C-alpha cells in the first residue's frame, strides 16, 4: 500500500469518529432513542439557533468529505493507483 492510501484510510477512520460524535451532539427531535437515554430531560436547556446551525454545517461538511474520501479510495483500488 502506498503512503497516500494509508493516510487516506487513517483520515477516513478519524472522520468516522468525529462524524459519530457530531451526530450524537444533535438535539433530539423526541420520540426516539434520544428520549430513552435522557434527551427529554434537557429540552429546557436547548442550544441556541446559531450553535445548532453551526453543528449542522460541520456535520454536513465532514460527511461530504468522508464520502468523497471513500469514493477516492475506491477509485484508487479500482484502477490500481495505490
Automatic annotation (TrEMBL):
<feature type="transmembrane region" description="Helical">
    <location>
        <begin position="58"/>
        <end position="76"/>
    </location>
</feature>
<keyword id="KW-0813">Transport</keyword>
<keyword id="KW-0811">Translocation</keyword>
<comment type="function">
    <text>Involved in protein export. Participates in an early event of protein translocation.</text>
</comment>
<dbReference type="GO" id="GO:0009306">
    <property type="term" value="P:protein secretion"/>
</dbReference>
<feature type="transmembrane region" description="Helical">
    <location>
        <begin position="6"/>
        <end position="24"/>
    </location>
</feature>
<keyword id="KW-0472">Membrane</keyword>
<dbReference type="Pfam" id="PF03840">
    <property type="entry name" value="SecG"/>
</dbReference>
<dbReference type="GO" id="GO:0015450">
    <property type="term" value="F:protein-transporting ATPase activity"/>
</dbReference>
<comment type="similarity">
    <text>Belongs to the SecG family.</text>
</comment>
<protein>
    <recommendedName>
        <fullName>Protein-export membrane protein SecG</fullName>
    </recommendedName>
</protein>
<keyword id="KW-0653">Protein transport</keyword>
<dbReference type="InterPro" id="IPR004692">
    <property type="entry name" value="SecG"/>
</dbReference>
<keyword id="KW-0812">Transmembrane</keyword>
<dbReference type="GO" id="GO:0005886">
    <property type="term" value="C:plasma membrane"/>
</dbReference>
<keyword id="KW-1003">Cell membrane</keyword>
<keyword id="KW-1133">Transmembrane helix</keyword>
Amino acid at each position: 500500500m502506498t503512503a497516500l492510501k494509508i493516510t487516506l484510510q487513517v483520515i477516513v477512520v478519524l472522520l468516522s469518529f468525529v462524524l459519530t460524535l457530531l451526530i450524537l451532539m444533535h438535539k433530539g427531535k423526541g420520540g426516539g432513542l434520544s428520549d430513552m437515554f435522557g434527551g427529554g430531560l434537557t429540552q429546557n436547556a436547548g442550544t441556541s439557533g446559531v450553535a445548532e446551525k453551526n453543528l449542522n454545517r460541520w456535520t454536513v461538511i465532514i460527511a461530504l468529505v468522508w464520502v468523497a474520501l471513500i469514493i477516492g479510495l475506491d477509485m484508487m483500488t479500482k484502477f490500481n493507483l495505490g
